[in-house]
Amino acid sequence: MNYKTFSTIFPIPEDIFKQLEQFQDLLNIWNKAYNLVQKDSLKEFWTRHVLDSLELYLYLKLWQETYKETLLYDLGSGGGFPGIILAIVGIKNIVLVEARQKKCAFLREVCRVLRLEIPIYCMRFEEMVFESSTFICRALAPFQDLLKLSNLPKVSHETFHLWGIKGIGIEKEIEDGKKIGIDRPYKVHLGQFREGNRIIEILPTVR
């Protein structure tokens, strides 16, 4: 995808687009050795990976108008989606959490080349000591398991707030969850950029 086409979908300065292209080049190189993402998905880098990640942009931009200094943890950062993409386009205070060493090495290299100052924790998020209770993720876990993340150590159950990028399967996951019981408020937002995308937002119980 070229800059002109991309900017009609998601307007950004050309230098930011060039950073995304640099990221794409690094992903293509590293993926040959480490299988960071499915090989076939590289052909859909802009639609399947970049624009999927940007589904969260408007929600986080609005949220950061109020919570300017709050850390935003990307759980299971993997190949850098959505955390790296969101950081490139200007979302602040992102922290990457990824358990696999090879993927952490890739994330560090991306941050070095693109000069992104993003903390990276190479560990299971169940072992993290979090400094905030705000999270993002992409295809991390079923809905019921996302709800359980509010019980992580040092996470406030009351102020826990999560945005997750999901597909249409989230609707069945929620229906299954209702049979067991859902103990906190949530919203499902339609995606902007790809048919079938959904954003699950698990809300704080207090503000």
Can you offer a commentary on this structure?
The protein is α/β, with parallel strands linked by helices. It has one domain: Vaccinia Virus protein VP39 (Rossmann fold, 3-Layer(aba) Sandwich), CATH 3.40.50. Helices cover 41% and strands 16% of the residues. It has a 7-stranded mixed sheet with strand order 3-2-1-4-5-7-6. α5 links the parallel β1 and β2. α2 runs antiparallel to α6. It is globular, with a radius of gyration of 17 Å.
CATH architecture: 3-Layer(aba) Sandwich
- The coarse silhouette is globular
So how many helices? 8
Q: In angstroms, what is the radius of gyration?
A: 17 Å
The count of β-strands is 7
Largest pleated sheet: 7 strands, mixed
CATH superfamily: Vaccinia Virus protein VP39
Low-confidence stretches: none
Distance, first to last CA: 41 Å
Query: How much beta, percentage-wise?
Result: 15-25%
Strand order of the largest sheet: 3-2-1-4-5-7-6
Order of helices and strands: HHHHEHEHEEHEHEE
Strand-pairing-aware structural class: alpha/beta
Number of domains: 1
Helix content: 40-55%
* Average pLDDT level: 94
What is the CATH class designation? Answer: Alpha Beta
Could you please say which CATH topology applies here? Rossmann fold
What is the topological layout?
Blueprint: H1 3-9, H2 14-34, H3 45-53, H4 57-66, E1 72-75, H5 83-88, E2 94-98, H6 101-114, E3 120-122, E4 134-138, H7 143-148, E5 161-166, H8 170-180, E6 186-190, E7 198-202
